[in-house]
């Protein structure tokens, strides 16, 4: 059907459209698409190119043809669209500046292109310039002020781009500015360049905010007036001047985004505190917020007051010691974080305590489904006491956390790794838990008290180096310890006293991984279970001694992957 429609469209277009076949190119052709082979194997006359309006490449163009492109560009008099996406070109000829009627120029993903020709500034009717993914692009043009019709400018993925061109502030029709707007005082790029860009919409990234030294300069950007923006990312970077902390706060205060904003990221802000607008409940559209590497701030803003916030990331804020009432809302917000679904704390080196809100704690985080706490080495407690919607909880590298799991009746995944302070999980594991992974952590509570047999939905169980809690286990199962029959994956490491493991009660088991169980000598009657697909035994010498050739390769002992063995 697709081919029939394509053929019908070609028939209806007649000579107006020419796709690949150079023989059909005529003086009536307005739209021409070509490939490398067309340029290499076919010839054409300049008379046939005069009326072409659209010129698009498919696939890589041989990088050895700049002279050919130069010839072609000199023939175009009425070209409106030039697309050379993924053309593999290294250099564009200056004759591109002759394309006075050009509206759209797409140079995306030409990874060998290092600069645009200076004649690009002569494209006075250009409305869209796209160079995204040109990973080696270092220079655009010195000044773009002459491109007064420009509406869309996309340099996303141009990571080697040294600086933004001058004159962006004069592009008053600009709607899209993708790629970093980089503030560099030495090159003359100021935040005030944004003042007249009232038509901006979509996303905007601003880099180099450490080079904004006064609130008046920040105010001149008039970000709050740009109501078409729905995503704003602000990066401070390394500043060359020592600016007072209060001034830094005032600068951020004057960079207040419009209330239409949906996603906000602040990275590298070096002020002592956040301005009042951050967390203001008037931002009813805010759904994502990320605060990263704001290293001097000692308190979080009142983000609990944002009524629509769904995703929050707090990372690299090493000066924060306590997260308390200010986080939920200074006015005693009765329902903090009413819509939040995902919460991530990462690399909070100084964070020690998480306080409950002053209101009934059961009203906080009513919709939270995913909570991840990584590398918060000083955190001692406490987690929120009632997370009734939580589905996934991950705690990694929180060495001081004496974990007391909150009430999470809907929890499906619990992941704990490198938590060195002793803790217990008794009476905290909900019956609908599907994945339980505990690795490299200290658990003193005997594993028999976990009541794992009651977790009738458990599919994956990982108990890897969990400490003394496993020392009393000699047999699986044993009278006071059973695994649920729902298990499909079982990983056990360092059960020092384990002698026997029987899988006869685990009919759904498909994968088993046993390591560093030096006393394990028996796998019971009926091993392997009927659905088992792979079993690994590493550093289990007594089991290894009882191996025999296994042509199916079902079981792997130690590192001898090339040899096939099974348990007898």
Describe the protein:
The chain is mainly beta and 568 residues long. The two termini are 59 Å apart. It is built from 8 helices and 30 strands. The strands form 5 sheets. The chain has a 16-stranded parallel β-sheet.
Helicity, as a percent range: under 10%
Structural classification? mainly beta
Low-pLDDT windows of residues: 559-568
Give the overall silhouette. globular
Blueprint of the fold:
Blueprint: H1 2-13, E1 17-19, E2 31-35, H2 36-41, H3 46-49, E3 54-58, H4 66-75, E4 81-83, E5 104-106, E6 128-130, E7 152-154, E8 176-178, E9 181-182, E10 201-207, H5 215-219, E11 228-235, H6 245-254, E12 263-267, E13 288-292, E14 311-315, E15 322-323, H7 325-328, E16 342-346, E17 353-354, E18 370-374, E19 392-396, E20 413-417, E21 435-439, E22 460-464, E23 475-476, E24 489-493, E25 500-501, E26 511-515, E27 534-538, H8 541-544, E28 547-549, E29 555-557, E30 565-567
């Amino acid at each position: 059907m697709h081919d029939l429609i394509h053929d019908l469209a070609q028939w209806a277009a007649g000579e107006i459209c020419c796709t690949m076949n150079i023989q059909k190119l005529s003086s009536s052709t307005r739209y021409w698409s070509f490939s490398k082979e067309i340029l290499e194997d076919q010839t054409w006359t300049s008379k046939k190119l005069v009326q072409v309006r659209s010129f698009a490449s498919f696939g890589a163009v041989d990088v050895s043809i700049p002279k050919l492109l130069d010839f072609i560009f000199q023939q175009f008099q009425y070209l409106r669209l030039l697309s050379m996406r993924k053309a593999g070109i290294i250099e564009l000829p200056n004759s591109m500046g002759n394309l006075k009627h050009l509206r759209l120029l797409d140079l995306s993903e030409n990874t060998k292109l290092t600069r645009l020709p200076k004649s690009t500034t002569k494209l006075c009717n250009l409305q869209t310039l796209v160079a995204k993914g040109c990973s080696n692009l270092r220079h655009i043009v010195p000044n773009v002020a002459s491109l007064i019709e420009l509406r869309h400018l996309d340099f996303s993925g141009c990571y080697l781009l040294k600086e933004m061109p001058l004159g962006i502030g004069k592009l008053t029709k600009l709607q899209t500015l993708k790629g970093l707007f980089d503030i560099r005082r030495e090159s003359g790029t100021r935040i005030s360049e944004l003042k007249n860009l009232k038509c901006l919409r979509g996303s905007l990234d601003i880099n180099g905010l450490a080079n904004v030294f006064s609130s008046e300069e920040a105010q001149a950007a008039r970000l709050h007036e740009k109501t078409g923006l729905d995503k704003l990312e602000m990066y401070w970077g390394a500043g060359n001047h020592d600016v007072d902390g209060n001034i830094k706060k005032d600068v951020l205060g004057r960079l207040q985004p419009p209330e239409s904003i949906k996603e906000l990221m602040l990275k590298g802000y070096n002020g002592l505190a956040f301005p009042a607008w951050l967390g203001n409940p008037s931002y009813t559209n805010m759904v994502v917020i990320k605060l990263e590497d704001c290293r001097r701030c000692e308190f979080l803003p009142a983000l609990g007051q944002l009524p629509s916030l769904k995703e929050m990331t707090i990372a690299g804020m090493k000066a924060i010691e306590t997260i308390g009432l200010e986080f939920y809302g200074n006015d005693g917000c009765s329902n903090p974080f009413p819509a939040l679904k995902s919460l991530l704390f990462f690399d909070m080196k100084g964070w020690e305590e998480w306080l409950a809100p002053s209101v009934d704690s059961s009203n906080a985080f009513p919709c939270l489904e995913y909570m991840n706490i990584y590398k918060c080495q000083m955190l001692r407690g406490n987690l929120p006491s009632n997370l009734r919607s939580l589905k996934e909880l991950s705690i990694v590298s929180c060495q001081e956390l004496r974990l007391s799991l909150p009430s999470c009746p809907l929890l499906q995944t619990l992941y704990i790794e490198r938590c060195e302070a002793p803790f217990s999980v008794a009476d905290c594991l909900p019956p609908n838990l599907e994945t339980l992974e505990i690795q490299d952590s200290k658990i003193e509570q005997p594993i028999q008290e976990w009541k794992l047999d009651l977790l009738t939905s458990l599919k994956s169980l990982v108990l890897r180096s969990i400490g003394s809690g496993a020392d009393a286990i000699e047999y699986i199962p044993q009278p006071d310890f059973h695994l649920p029959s729902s298990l499909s994956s079982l990983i056990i490491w360092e059960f020092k006293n384990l002698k026997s493991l029987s899988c006869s009660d685990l009919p759904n088991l498909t994968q088993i991984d046993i390591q560093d169980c030096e006393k394990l000598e028996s796998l019971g009657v009926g091993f392997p279970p009927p659905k088992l697909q792979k079993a690994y035994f590493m550093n289990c010498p007594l089991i290894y001694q009882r191996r025999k050739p296994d042509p199916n390769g079902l079981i792997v002992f130690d590192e001898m992957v090339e040899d096939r063995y099974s348990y007898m």
